[in-house]
Amino acid sequence: MNCLSYSPDGVYLATGGNDGKLKCWTTKNSLCFTTFTDHEGEITDIKFMPKKGNAILSSSVDGTVRAFDLVRYKNFRTMKPNKHTQLMCLAIEAGGDIVCAGSSDPFNIFVWSLKTGQLVDIMSGHTGPVASLCFSPSNGLLVSGSWDQSVRVWDVFGKNG
After folding, report:
1. pLDDT tens per residue, range 92-113
2. CATH entry, 3-154, from 3.40.50.720, 2.130.10.10, 3.40.50.12640, 3.40.50.970
3. pTM of the model
4. With 54 labelled, which of 13, 66, 110, 161 sits at a CA distance of 20 to 30 A?
5. Which residues have CB under 8 Å from 78's CB, separation 6+?
6. 34-47 burial, b if ≥16 CB within 10 A, otherwise e?
7. Is there a contact between 146 and 138 (Cβ–Cβ < 8 Å)?
């Protein structure tokens, strides 16, 4: 197991492993109620959709971010960078419209529209793999942490500059 995440209401727990499987569990009785096997490489990060938690996103070393519907139990969106890279971390902005993933080489942050699946931006500046991402819940700023021992703040929406 590489990563895990609770749903916003705490009812579900999701785990991602080296085998590329994303498993969803109930917290009430610890039963696995679905397993997604769409990834072709280890899963590196998992995030539930904010607020409702009716979908879950995962990043992988296979170079994809996948969005899974927890009502229909299917992969409804696959997002890829403009060229193959291993994706190490994931963030979803509070409204659930923008998805970001950090890569190991090149050291970029890829930004997609979840609605369309289109790559809308590539942010660069780190000199090492991007290891963690997090959106501020109040102002939409994205923070990234890297193996280059730096933390950067990004204005993904261009409102502050």
Report:
1. 999 999 999 999 999 999 999 9
2. 2.130.10.10
3. 0.94
4. 110
5. 38, 64, 65, 66, 67, 117
6. eebebbeebbbbbb
7. no
